[in-house]
């Protein structure tokens, strides 16, 4: 899921049609933030133990 935000959001020709901002909205942003928080929580837990 998070891979979809790495390169495609930075390059205007990464999508077959339209600019990158046309392919991402609030739903995708909220989901990406939720996944990123899960990753950070996991890493913090692993580093603490």
Give the secondary structure arrangement, pairings included.
Blueprint: H1 26-48
How would you sum up this structure, described in words?
The protein is mainly alpha-helical and 49 residues long. The chain has one domain (2-48). 47% of the residues lie in helices and 0% in strands. It has one helix and no strands. It has one helix spanning 26-48. The protein is elongated, with a radius of gyration of 14 Å. The two termini are 27 Å apart. The model has no long low-confidence stretch (mean pLDDT 88).
State the helical fraction.
Answer: 40-55%
The number of strands is 0
Q: What's the average pLDDT?
A: 88
Query: Can you tell me the number of structural domains?
Result: 1
Question: Between the first and last Cα atoms, what is the distance in angstroms?
Answer: 27 Å
Q: Give the amount of beta strand, in percent.
A: under 5%
> What global shape is seen?
elongated
* Succession of helices and strands: H
What is the overall number of helices? 1
The biggest beta sheet reads: none
Write down the Rg: 14 Å
Q: List the uncertain runs.
A: none
Instruction: Determine the structural class based on helices, strands and strand pairing.
Output: mainly alpha
Give a quick rundown of the structure:
With 49 residues, the protein is mostly helical. Helices cover 47% and strands 0% of the residues. The radius of gyration is 14 Å and the shape is elongated.
Give the key terms.
single chain; 49 residues; mainly alpha; 47% helix; elongated
């Amino acid at each position: 899921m998070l891979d979809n935000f790495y390169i495609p959001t930075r390059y205007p020709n990464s999508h077959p049609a339209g600019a990158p901002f046309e392919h991402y909205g609030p739903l995708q942003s909220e989901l990406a933030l939720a996944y990123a928080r899960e990753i950070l929580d996991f890493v913090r837990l692993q580093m603490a133990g």
